[in-house]
Fold this protein.
Amino acid sequence: MDAGPTTPPRRRDAAATRAALLNAARTLMSQRGVEGTSTRDVAAEAGVNQALVYRYFGSKEKLFAEAAATGADSPDDLITNTPLADLPRVLLDRILLAAEAAEAAELSTLVTATNDEHVRAIMRERIETAFSTLLAARLDGPDAELRAELVGAILVGIGFLRHKIGTRAMSTADRETLGVYVDRMVAPLLG
Amino acid sequence: MDAGPTTPPRRRDAAATRAALLNAARTLMSQRGVEGTSTRDVAAEAGVNQALVYRYFGSKEKLFAEAAATGADSPDDLITNTPLADLPRVLLDRILLAAEAAEAAELSTLVTATNDEHVRAIMRERIETAFSTLLAARLDGPDAELRAELVGAILVGIGFLRHKIGTRAMSTADRETLGVYVDRMVAPLLG
DNA sequence: CGGTAAAGTCATCATTTGACTACTTCTTTA
DNA sequence: TAAAGAAGTAGTCAAATGATGACTTTACCG
């Protein structure tokens, strides 16, 4: 467990504290929303003093903005590089795994906590980059941008029903079955 | 303007006040979420004294629960009676009109304000009734329930991107164009 | 009328919350 | 090892919020 010269074993670690706050913010924000989460909640979840939110982020809003902006690694690479035919499954897998992953910072989850103007703007930008821009660029034919956003809409809707609302069939469906139907729905858009 | 015997022209009207509070609650809740809306906000929007929230509903939570439960007229009739082939368009129209309608109590809008456990449960029940039960009953073949919920997922996703996030193409797309693609996506599920 | 109950108002309480500051403790380094 | 600065703590303030109860106004009925 030698930390090496680049990572001295500090008991007080600003970077680690910052990261803990960001993780806690993402977790709670995706569960309860921005307004429903206090800085004290976040600090408690991170196991850290509440005042440190202000030391490291300046304000609650900036904390949540950074949490939203740096959450999941963006799907941009996937969308750019995955063969179109495989894309529905690959993106679906991301959505399905989002909840199981402790971070819970996936678009589909985070997006549901978005009653805050600033967080909403960040989400819009991420979605537009991934779908309206990158995916649309790979589509031929008319209405490429709209068709790309419809692919996003399906994924958001599935994530929403499965992780947030928890409807019967959607919550229990396995990856394979869901994949078959998502393929069929998305195919006419990519075609 | 004779109010008649059944509707005495009272300057003080409990029923009207109650209704005004419910409407205001729906409007603000769908915009800012439950936690982001105070009882004072609701009372002000309704043009009514804040204490009346407690006279008529007992608590903020009960006000929002009733607002969520009694909001939009449910799409159950549409889902039961519309020819399957027309259903995508008909449901899409409901989603598109939701934002323009002042009430803004449509599932697609309300659903996005749902970080409250109770409201979420109500939403789940409404969605399951409409899709997992009523629509599923009209579908042949395997996975009827899941396929029905996928129809719901598309609509929720579209409503979300259009009304809440406001992505470029989705916000500006006209009913006709959108209808074409929604038809193509939903067809494999209904078939 | 005049009394009564419903409808509505007002002031206020106890908490919570975002934010800030003064202070203590640890870690590094000269 | 001692100085200095970074990391962390504790306490507190002002505003906002859910909730309540005492009070006033209005409408109706005998």
Notes: Chain A touches chain B through 53 residues (CB under 8 Å).
